[in-house]
Amino acid sequence: MSNSAPILELRNVTKRIGGKTIVDHLSFDIPQGVVFGLLGPNGAGKTTTIRMITGLISMTEGSVKIGGLDVNSRFEDAMKLMGGIVENPEMYKYLTGYQNLIHFSRMHEGISKDRLKEVIDLVGLGNRIHDKVKRYSLGMRQRLGVAQALMHRPKLLILDEPTNGLDPAGIRELRDYLRRLAREEGITVLVSSHLLSEMELMCDRVAVIQTGKLVGIQEMGDITRADGAGHVRFDISRPVEGAEIIGRLYPEAKVLADTSGFEAILEREEIPVIIEQLVKEGFRVYGVKASGRSLEDKFLEMTGSGQIE
Ligand SMILES: Nc1ncnc2c1ncn2[C@@H]1O[C@H](COP(=O)(O)OP(=O)(O)OP(=O)(O)O)[C@@H](O)[C@H]1O
Question: Which keywords describe this protein according to UniProt (predicted)?
């Protein structure tokens, strides 16, 4: 397998249950070493997709390859390349974190104590690993789960809704070490979430799914690029009046005024037209600032719905 070969390939992956299509011909590739997000509202089919990738349920149609190995025909070899937490990781609360890892290491061949130390350090549990799991915060249990999923050196780590129940500090921590895994260890990470803001911070690339269908794939770099459409802020005199004029000129721009100016979602080429118009109408323009478009805007544009958090 060359370095540029995708670590995960989905082709027309479909799940029908009782005549209902839950996942509908989903096709996408995930390259190595990225943090890839599966984003969609509740019930979009994220968990069902992940359960098919991890072999927990069968596909009705389509194929999944992990590291070029077909999950149907080469199940065991494909699974060796993957580590995942799909359902909540079942840890033994009355054992220490370390005892739990020792227990789970017996499910694989040849995991050394050195390797355990490595994964413990990687998830930052070094100073608490000999505490009982019942004393761990949710974030620490989550990290212990990741350590367990990583011990056999998988190339692909799959986490279903990993931020569920974490507080903002926990989410930031999780995000930082997932990104570190991708960067330093070359591990590819697939995470699912229904929270746009988290995906935007955590992922390099995001696939948006809705009612089981792929709506779009987006590079985070593209979304935050300032030369495409974006949020633009105009500081002007008489902002409410100015906003009204621009709103009439560009009804798609969602113009929003406040006391010192207004903001609008605009294409780059619309900006000089607006400046010209404002000056012509006698407004004083004190400043114009383009900022990158958020994933939320892009998500709304792709799904055409308000189903976001
Ligand atoms: N075994 C099943 N039988 C019938 N319907 C199912 C089954 N499993 C899932 N579904 C339905 O398929 C749809 C997608 O479910 P899934 O759990 O994959 O969504 P999700 O995107 O992961 O959402 P959530 O974030 O709520 O978990 C839902 O409408 C769900 O009710």
Answer: ATP-binding, Nucleotide-binding
